[in-house]
Design goal:
Elements lengths: L1 H16 L20 E11 L6 E12 L2 E10 L6 E13 L3 E13 L7 E12 L4 E12 L7 E12 L4 E12 L5 E12 L2 E10 L2 E13 L2
Antiparallel strand pairs: 1-2, 1-12, 2-3, 3-4, 4-5, 5-6, 6-7, 7-8, 8-9, 9-10, 10-11, 11-12
Length: 229
């Protein structure tokens, strides 16, 4: 019943928001020499389907794009508990290849905090690929490494998302994808998901239904891109 509820939520939210305000793209803005500074706000949260429906994570991220550079880019993520969180800071260039490919290459320094973190520190080389195959068919791939900086850290391989999306109209996009995590000495953890994105003047609202180890989770991902005039 819980999963059915979230499926219905995805469906009806898509119908409702598809009649909302004019869309603003959820992807990173294409770099232009004369482009003004653009502020990017990203908010995300997840909740487990299974009782007691605990929160799986929170993320807050703030960034600015200045011409062809995405800098600064900083944020914090926790995993629903008060004993562990990650602070990250970085930036990098944005490359545009014609009208169909955008490539962003950031580098983050991450500091884990809290009693369960043991002061671990990492470098995250963070590439983002956006492909626009047709006016309605697009894809996004984000895969990165967690490279340990001190003895408390360990190697980790992460595919944050590899998704394929179809734009139903200017406001509603539907898609599916895959993510995975590989910690040192542990097997791969695959995470399939379905997604529905609603684009409005107030930002992009993306709803995920995702398979995770031990169950499923619902995610809400929000992004707003604001140009400074």
């Amino acid at each position: 019943m819980q999963r059915a509820f979230y499926l219905l939520l995805l469906f009806f939210s898509g119908l409702a928001f598809s009649h909302a305000d004019e869309a603003s793209s959820p992807s990173l803005p294409a770099p232009q020499p004369s482009q003004p500074v653009q502020d990017i706000i990203i908010l995300r949260t997840g909740e487990q389907f299974q009782a007691p429906h605990v929160v799986t994570y929170h993320l807050v991220e703030l960034a600015q794009q200045r011409g062809r550079w995405l800098v600064p880019d900083f944020g914090v993520i926790d995993y629903g508990k008060g004993d562990f969180r990650e602070l990250f800071l970085g930036g990098g260039p944005v490359y545009q290849y014609g009208k169909k490919v955008t490539y962003t290459q950031e580098l983050f320094f991450a500091q884990d905090t809290g009693p369960a973190a043991h002061g671990a520190r990492y470098l995250w080389p963070w590439p983002v690929f956006n492909f626009q195959f047709t006016p309605k068919l697009s894809s996004e791939v984000v895969a990165y490494l967690c490279i340990p900086v001190n003895h408390a850290a360990y190697m980790q391989y992460v595919l944050d998302r590899a998704k394929l999306e179809h734009a139903v109209n200017r406001r509603l996009t539907l898609g599916a994808g895959l993510g995975f995590v590989k910690n040192a000495g542990q097997p791969w953890q695959n995470r399939h998901f379905f997604t529905s994105t609603i684009n409005t003047r107030q930002g992009a609202f993306e709803f995920w239904l995702q398979k995770i180890p031990g169950g499923d989770q619902f995610q809400l991902r929000y992004q707003l891109v604001h140009s400074e005039r």
